[in-house]
Amino acid sequence: MTSKAGRTALIIVGVVALLIGGLFAGQGANLIPGSSMTGDRTWLYIGLVLAVVGVVLIVVGVRRRKDGR
């Protein structure tokens, strides 16, 4: 995998994780109704962890050197 492809993959996976984590957290916090996850604190915590992982992946992808290091 080339460096540019690796960076792009990290950023894309990070954005998807951040969005899904936000959705899970929103449902767990009872902000987004209409699911069995709504109001369940477990999903709030899972969503927060997933969102943090997404942010970390985005930061790593953005800060990764272009020469592959």
Brief summary of the model shown:
With 69 residues, the protein is mostly helical.
Briefly note the structural class of the backbone. Answer: mainly alpha
Tell me the span between the first and last alpha carbons: 13 Å
Low-confidence stretches: none
Q: Quick one: biggest sheet?
A: none
Query: What is the helical fraction, as a range of percent?
Result: over 70%
Written as H for each helix and E for each strand, in order along the chain, the element string is HH
Total DSSP helices: 2
Coarse morphology:
elongated
Number of strands: 0
Which value, in Å, is the CA radius of gyration? 15 Å
Approximate strand percentage: under 5%
Mean pLDDT: 89
Helix-strand blueprint:
Layout: H1 3-28, H2 41-63
Helix pairs in contact: 1-2
Describe this structure in words.
The mean pLDDT is 89. The protein has 2 helices and no strands. It is mainly alpha-helical and 69 residues long.
List keywords for this structure.
single chain, 69 residues, mainly alpha, 2 helices, 71% helix, 0% strand
